[in-house]
Amino acid sequence: MENEKYNYSSLIINSVFRWEYQPESTFYFVWTRNVEESTSERNLDVIRNTVDLLKSQSNNNIAIKLTYWID
After folding, report:
1. Closest residue by Cα to residue 64 from 26, 33, 34
2. Are 13 and 32 in contact (CB under 8 A)?
3. How far apart are CA 26 and CA 66, in angstroms?
4. What is the pLDDT of residue 46?
């Protein structure tokens, strides 16, 4: 049996926006992008793999949180 090599690539991007609209009251917006790919190619080309990951279909998640401080 031949020893096959696989190329696995993963890219995770997180972005957080935080706004304090009153003292102790905040609004959060979080966006996460997750992309994974695996191929049976033997050579590793970091730049090409990164560009391929950016072009690939991804899982995007959004979270929103609003807090309001009551005196």
Report:
1. 26
2. yes
3. 6
4. 79
H or E segment and range at residue 49: helix 46-55
- The pTM of the full predicted model, rounded to 2 decimals, is 0.70
Q: Give the closest residue to 37 by CA, choosing from 23, 61, 55, 25.
A: 55
Query: CA 7 to CA 4: how far, in whole Å?
Result: 10
Q: Which residue is it, tokens 């009153």?
A: 22
d(C-alpha 28, C-alpha 19), whole Å: 7
Helix (H, G, I), strand (E, B) or coil at 1: coil
Which two three-digit tokens encode residue 68?
């309001």
pLDDT at res. 42: 66
Backbone angles phi, psi at 52, to 5 degrees: -60, -40
